[in-house]
Every structure is written in C-alpha cells, then in structure tokens.
C-alpha cells in the first residue's frame, strides 16, 4: 500500500499480469481532488495495446492448466476471503484515497470499504456451491448431466461514485464463478482500485487473474470491442451502456448493465412524516445525489405536499457543505467540474421551463475551499413530470417535487419514465404498500426506508436501467454457462442409420 500525503503528487501505473507497468505510450492523466480543485495524482493512460496485453494475461490465467483453473472451488473461494481480510486491514487508507478522488464523505467511503469484504466473504462461500444437474432421460442407458462453467475473460467497467463497492459487486461473483478479470475503472477514480490490486499477491491470487487498465474512452472502447473478452459488465450511465451493448453485441458477446435511474419516492397522506422526511432527504442528498438510486423525484400527496415541502426546504437549507474529510460535513462536492456544470445546467433549464426554486439552485460556497466543485442542495417545484429535470438523470443534489391526487395517479407518474431502477413508498397502510409495490416498474422497491442494498439480495433495473442482476445467487449465474454432457453406458453399438429416440 503506497503512502499518501496531502501535498505530494501520487503516481499510479497499470496493473497487468501481476506487475505494475507504465502505459505503452507513456501517457498519464491527472486525478483532481474535487474539494480543492487541485490535482493530487497522475495515472497511467492505457492504450488499446495495453488493453490487449491485459486481456492476453487474463486469458493465460484462464487456461485449463493454469494455477487459477486448477484450484478447487473451495480454495478459490478462500482466496476471495483472504482478499477480504487484506482490504479490511487497509480500509481506512483506501477510503481516504476515494475521498480525494470523488469528494464523497469520508464516513460514507469508510463505511463502504468496511462492507466490501462482506461481498467477498459471501461469494467466496458460494464458490463451491455451484452445481450441475443430472437429467433423467427416457433412454436409460444414457447418462446426461450438466456442469456450470465460467465464461472466460470478463471485462469490468466501473463508475466513479462508489468505486470499490461497485467494482466488487461485480468482481466477487465473477471470480467465485472462476472467471478472470480485466477492470477499467473510471478515469475519475482509478487510484483506489490500483491500491487494492497491490494486495492481490498478499491474498495469493495468481498473476493475470485480475488486471487493471486505467484511462478514458480509448481503454473502455478497446475492452468492449476485444474479441478475447467473453463478457462486459458495465456500471454507469444509460447512454454509455447503450453504446457498450451495441459494441459487444456486434461480436455476439455478453453484457451485464447496471445503469441509471430516475427513482421516485412516493409519500402517501398516511405516511409517518418524520420518517418520510428523513427518507426523501437521504434518497437525494445522501452521496450528494451522485448515485444511480437517487430518489430524485418526490411525489407527495396533495394534502401533505406543502407541509412536507416546507420541512424538506428547512432541512436542505441547513445541510453543511464542506471538506468531505471533516466529520461535521454533511455533503461534499460534485466529483468533477464537468459534473458541477451539468447540475447547474439542469437547474437553469428547469428555471427556464417555469420551475420554482424552493431551496438552493446555485453553486455552493465553502470559505475554506473556494475552488471546490460544490452545489447547493436544491428543491424544485411547479414542474411537470414531463420536464427534462424530471425525466433525465441529473446525478446531483436536485430534487423534483410534485403533488398527486390518489394512488392511481402516483403509480402512473412514478412509472412514466424510461428508467426502472428503484422506488420508495411511504405509507402505514400495509395493503396499499404491497399493492403499489406490485405495480411499480422498478427492480428494487423500498417501503418506509431508502438506499438499502446488501450482498445477498439481487439488485438491478427494469427498462433502460439495466440488464442482469448484481448481488445474491442471481449474480453468480450471470457469469456462468451451462454444458450438457451425454454418456452412453451400454455396450450396444448403435446403427448409424437408425435414429434412436
């Protein structure tokens, strides 16, 4: 684990075949601390040649006589657990690096690094629970059985908002299934994964099983297009996911896509307002709104709309912006200057469409960090569900609040989007809660809570929010393929010109 200081510029190289290497072209790109606006690290910028080298290393590690493939499933699972132990030992250091990369709160990043090992323990335990079946045939002389086998080299492309957690939500099941990996992390948050890569030899992983190539569009496109990659698992925006799916589909590869959302928080008239207020705030301002599951649309029953909106306004105006490393800070900066500008443009466009700014609506000011990428917690009212800010993913602390008249209208408004990742329901009526949950088009429904995710419960989207599932047993299935084996047990010689059925 490299030592880090607040002033020294850190340098990170690619991790290929168990070694740290420079990019073939020698290029690097800066990593900027969003709280200060200053670069803090330089990271190798991979070329297509580097990606090819990483894929070839992963392919060698997947060969049938390789140390990885000859491991028993039990021992493979134990390697995942040993990596979990190593990450636990360095969790605080890695969390601080992630804060410097994406500006999220240290307490959030530290909490994520503390739970990353739980994914590795869970899927490490599943590694030797992958089983085939014996098929009962009418032809009793033939034994037919199936095996569940890994796909091969899996390319993993991850986002910047929760770099380690979202990476291992994919890596853990892919490794448990026996695949080898080439990871392309976001260019915004590359350092934390490269730090974790340094722990792989300590955990006992053979060279080439996990490789890390860093860079922007060139590296990602090369990985998606590479014929040696059996599957791409991508977490990120829907537009990028659509492009990756087209590239991979062109060579008949497989994909898992965990994409964007425009998730509704629906507050009914009988809701516990204290709980609903906390849940709506957490849904949009937790992580600064920079999460795919952000509850960015609040639909509130018209009888309590004004009261809840006033509650939310008062709380939003009191949220403490500041240094994400400080414990009193409640919301950090946007991860990049480009993201800050995107957030501001959404709000400006909403104003132009007639929206009323209830809270926030402008760049945030933090005296000690004048160059930080801060944006105020924002609430918009007097908008329609068809407006741009209500239909497109902002990925920032911007809440679109709209009233509804009855259950039917709430459901229709919630479903009137191309996304279907998550939704929140706030009511004390048990029958209504389950009835509404059944009709919402979303992969995850929370009732009287929000932002709950764990390693053993499936997670993924409907509609344009994704393909496939992360977490739980379902996730391992995403990285396996079925082989059917037929064995004739009798000594009879079959006439080749007589079909035996």
Automatic annotation (TrEMBL):
It holds the Pfam family Aldedh. GO terms for molecular function: oxidoreductase activity, acting on the aldehyde or oxo group of donors, NAD or NADP as acceptor. The keyword Zinc does not apply. Its EC number is 1.2.1.-. InterPro entries: Ald_DH/histidinol_DH (IPR016161), Ald_DH_C (IPR016163), Ald_DH_CS_CYS (IPR016160), Ald_DH_CS_GLU (IPR029510), Ald_DH_N (IPR016162), Aldehyde_DH_dom (IPR015590). Keywords: Oxidoreductase. Residues 27-485 form the Aldehyde dehydrogenase domain. The active site is at residue 258. PROSITE patterns: ALDEHYDE_DEHYDR_CYS (PS00070), ALDEHYDE_DEHYDR_GLU (PS00687). It is an enzyme of class 1 (oxidoreductase). Belongs to the aldehyde dehydrogenase family. This is (Z)-2-((N-methylformamido)methylene)-5-hydroxybutyrolactone dehydrogenase. It comes from Capillimicrobium parvum.
